[in-house]
């Protein structure tokens, strides 16, 4: 089961490479608002690093890129853009020279830290995931100057993790909340402004553990912002999206989504953060598409690949949410 969960990182990374290859990413807003330079080059460099370590993983990515369907690319484009914009908005409101920290739980192969750390010298970043994923990522990051120059020289000589003055990539099973807190107590400060990111991660964490994780993190940091992206099962009786998704993943991948049908609507997903927060905002990714993507950008997306059914996009995007909780 843990292995099946770890493998989902290659899905996320291949979706990103596919969206880059088809020119969905980077989009103008990522470049202009989020200052994301060299986006494609950094991801390609990471892909080459992965190829050198695991032909099998790289093969999976190549396959996904070749079959990159527009629906998948729309989803990846929106999720990536929405999270990037939330992080940038958070960083922009931090007073100049004040310390700030970001904790990316279940980081997988995400490379956002490079873009944001290069723009905010006072930012420290913590990436956590299972040990297998962390050691692959640590090896790749240490093998290329384009990552090393931003992350800083690693203090550890082994390849199991990456520790520098401003960056920590360490293994942690998020189901064991005590271990998570031990790491955060060692490397982060409770009184420094903190953003916690869970991008397609809480859906894999068991119910009581995920609730404890949210509660403990929000109690540990005095003030913070939580950005979370996840699928939701759908609450209407006739809505079969979640049950079909769960059955497919179980059969094809032996993968469970323990809370997909529990927090199955935006309101229920949001409730899990509300006890500890001053405010929460949640939108489905369809709402995000309708409200945030300009007509010019929508037309650009349409020109990238032939999209048969926008109704299908609406159904799928209505089953993914982006939440922001502030405490
Ligand atoms: N957040 C990354 C992104 O969006 O690109 C990766 C998303 S991937 C779908 C889910 C990630 O969560 C995987 O890397 C997986 O290993 C990690 N994950 C899920 N449950 C975890 C747990 N209990 N402990 C540590 N990592 C976990």
TrEMBL record:
Q: Which reaction does it catalyse?
A: [phosphatase 2A protein]-C-terminal L-leucine + S-adenosyl-L-methionine = [phosphatase 2A protein]-C-terminal L-leucine methyl ester + S-adenosyl-L-homocysteine
Which enzyme type, at the first EC level?
transferase
So which domain of life are we looking at?
A: Eukaryota
Q: What is its EC number?
A: 2.1.1.233
Q: Which keywords accompany this UniProt record? A: Methyltransferase, S-adenosyl-L-methionine, Transferase
Binding residues annotated for S-adenosyl-L-methionine, in chain numbering: 79, 106, 173-174, 199
**InterPro entries linked:** LCMT1, Ppm1/Ppm2/Tcmp, SAM-dependent_MTases_sf
According to its UniProt record, what is one Pfam family this protein matches? Answer: LCM
Q: A single GO BP annotation from the record?
A: methylation
Which molecular function terms from Gene Ontology are attached? protein C-terminal leucine carboxyl O-methyltransferase activity
Q: Which family, according to the similarity comment?
A: Belongs to the methyltransferase superfamily. LCMT family.
Q: What does this protein do?
A: Methylates the carboxyl group of the C-terminal leucine residue of protein phosphatase 2A catalytic subunits to form alpha-leucine ester residues.
Q: What is this protein called?
A: Leucine carboxyl methyltransferase 1
This protein's species is Lachancea nothofagi CBS 11611
């Amino acid at each position: 089961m843990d292995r099946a969960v770890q493998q989902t990182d290659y899905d996320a990374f291949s979706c990103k490479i596919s969206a880059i290859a088809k020119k969905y990413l980077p989009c103008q807003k990522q470049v202009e608002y989020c200052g994301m330079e060299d986006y494609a080059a950094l991801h390609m460099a990471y892909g080459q690093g992965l190829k050198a370590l695991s032909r099998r993983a790289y093969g999976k990515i190549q396959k996904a890129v070749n079959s990159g369907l527009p629906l998948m690319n729309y989803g990846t484009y929106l999720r990536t853009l929405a999270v990037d914009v939330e992080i940038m908005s958070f960083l922009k409101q931090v007073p100049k020279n004040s310390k700030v920290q970001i904790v990316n739980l279940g980081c997988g192969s995400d490379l956002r830290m490079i873009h944001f750390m290069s723009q905010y010298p006072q930012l420290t970043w913590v990436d956590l995931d299972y040990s297998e994923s962390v050691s692959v990522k640590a090896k790749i990051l240490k093998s290329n100057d384009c990552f090393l120059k931003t992350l800083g020289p690693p203090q550890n000589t082994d390849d199991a993790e990456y520790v520098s003055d401003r960056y920590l990539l360490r293994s942690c099973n998020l189901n064991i909340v005590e271990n998570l807190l031990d790491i955060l107590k060692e490397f982060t400060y409770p009184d420094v402004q903190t953003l916690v990111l869970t991008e397609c991660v809480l859906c894999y964490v068991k119910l009581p553990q995920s609730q404890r994780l949210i509660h403990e993190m929000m109690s540990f940091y005095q003030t913070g912002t939580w950005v979370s992206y996840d699928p939701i099962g759908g609450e209407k009786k006739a809505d079969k999206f979640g049950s079909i998704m769960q059955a497919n993943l179980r059969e094809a991948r032996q993968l469970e989504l323990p809370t997909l049908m529990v927090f199955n609507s935006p309101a229920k997903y949001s409730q899990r953060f509300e006890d500890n927060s001053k405010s929460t905002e949640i939108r489905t990714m369809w709402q995000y598409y309708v409200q945030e993507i300009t007509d010019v950008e929508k037309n650009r997306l349409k020109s990238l690949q032939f999209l048969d059914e926008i109704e299908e996009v609406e159904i799928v995007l209505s089953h993914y949410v982006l939440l922001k909780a502030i405490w």
